């Protein structure tokens, strides 16, 4: 748990960092958050997180949010907005960031929209993560470049996994529901099981199981099973370089070698034989 004082902290990163795919523009702590109105928005992504007290955040032409402790808002660039304290004292931490890859990263995480995030895990504190970054930036001039970019990416991943967005369940909520069936699939992916066996093991309807898998992994249960089998096939080919592909396909859980080769090529972009060849070549170089 970070301890905060009565003095504001604001760290501005230099322009050299802006050649990175993902970079921090500013990071800081506001002991007494003020009133801001930005009719043209802010030119970077803006994360504002409440430590204590309460504030009101309004996206112009959209929603108004109450930001109490444990809640934060991610605002996309040039989104008109305003915010102000509701309680006598409203303390926040914030990050503004950008980068040529920032939109693509947030698109991949399904986070490229302005939204409210609420912490849902007792083990993960967004405020402490940002606080540690502020501490490093304030005291260590070397905290810049790749290190700050890596920590920012880590924060975004945790927000996606443990943040309840606009009162919708977090990804960790879906993971917990699916943990038993995913573990069963990992243990049985090599067996000749399919969707009926997965549904039976999960003890839920096909439609609900599909919904949970798509929310958690972005794919259907059967597609997830295929990914597990491909992972198993890669492991077998690497550890048994002389094994025939027909035998690999059986051990990995595929019905026949032609299905295995076609699926591998579709998902990986190369044939199993080429994958094994490339891997063996890489080992020889090492």
TrEMBL record:
CDD domains: cupin_RmlC-like. One of its GO terms (molecular function) is DNA-binding transcription factor activity. The keyword Transcription applies. It comes from Paenibacillus phyllosphaerae. PANTHER family: HTH-TYPE TRANSCRIPTIONAL ACTIVATOR RHAS-RELATED (PTHR46796). PROSITE patterns: HTH_ARAC_FAMILY_1, HTH_ARAC_FAMILY_2. Coiled coil: none annotated. Pfam families: AraC_binding, HTH_18. Gene3D superfamilies: Homeodomain-like, Regulatory protein AraC. Keywords: Activator, DNA-binding, Transcription, Transcription regulation. Residues 179-278 form the HTH araC/xylS-type domain. This is AraC-like DNA-binding protein.
């Amino acid at each position: 748990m970070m301890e905060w004082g009565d003095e504001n902290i604001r760290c501005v990163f230099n322009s050299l960092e802006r050649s990175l795919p993902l970079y921090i523009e500013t990071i800081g702590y506001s002991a007494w958050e003020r009133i801001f109105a930005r009719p043209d928005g802010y030119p970077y992504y803006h994360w504002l997180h409440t430590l204590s007290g309460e504030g009101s955040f309004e996206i112009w032409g959209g929603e108004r949010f109450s930001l109490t402790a444990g809640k934060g808002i991610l605002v996309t660039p040039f989104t008109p907005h305003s915010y102000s304290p509701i309680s006598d004292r409203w303390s926040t931490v914030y990050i503004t960031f950008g980068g040529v890859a920032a939109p693509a990263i947030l698109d991949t995480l399904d986070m490229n929209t302005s939204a409210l995030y609420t912490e849902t895990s007792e083990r993960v504190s967004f405020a402490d993560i940002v606080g540690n970054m502020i501490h490093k930036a304030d005291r260590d001039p070397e905290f810049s470049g790749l290190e700050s970019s890596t920590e920012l990416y880590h924060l975004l991943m945790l927000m996606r996994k443990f943040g309840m967005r606009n009162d919708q369940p977090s990804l960790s909520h879906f993971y917990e529901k699916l943990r038993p069936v995913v573990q069963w699939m990992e243990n049985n992916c090599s067996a000749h099981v399919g969707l009926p066996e997965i549904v039976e093991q999960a003890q839920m309807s096909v439609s609900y199981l599909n919904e949970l898998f798509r929310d958690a992994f972005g794919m259907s249960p059967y597609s997830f099973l295929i990914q597990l089998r491909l992972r198993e096939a890669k492991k077998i080919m690497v550890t048994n370089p002389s094994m025939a592909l027909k035998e690999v396909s059986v051990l990995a859980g595929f019905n026949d070698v032609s299905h295995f080769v076609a699926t591998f090529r579709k998902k990986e972009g190369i044939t199993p034989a080429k994958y094994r060849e490339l891997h063996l070549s890489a080992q020889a170089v090492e």
